[in-house]
Amino acid sequence: RTGEAIDPDALASDLTRAGYVHDDRVDTPGEFAARGQVVDVFPAGYYLPVRIEHDEGRIASIASYDAATQRRTDEFA
Length: 77
Fold this sequence. Notes:
This protein is 13% helix and 39% strand. By secondary structure, it is mainly beta.
């Protein structure tokens, strides 16, 4: 949720252990990318990837996005 603590390195490790594949561009289910203040994840069973933006160890926003255009589609709490 927005405002909650996040450790992007721990999240990346958890995703790798769960079978997700690190990629530079997330466009298929089961991929993730972590760079700067952004973590992109394409959850299995979801129709769009999700972008988690964070700042100073807190989640700033969570939104799905179109992989082709990189535009947000739905914002989550």
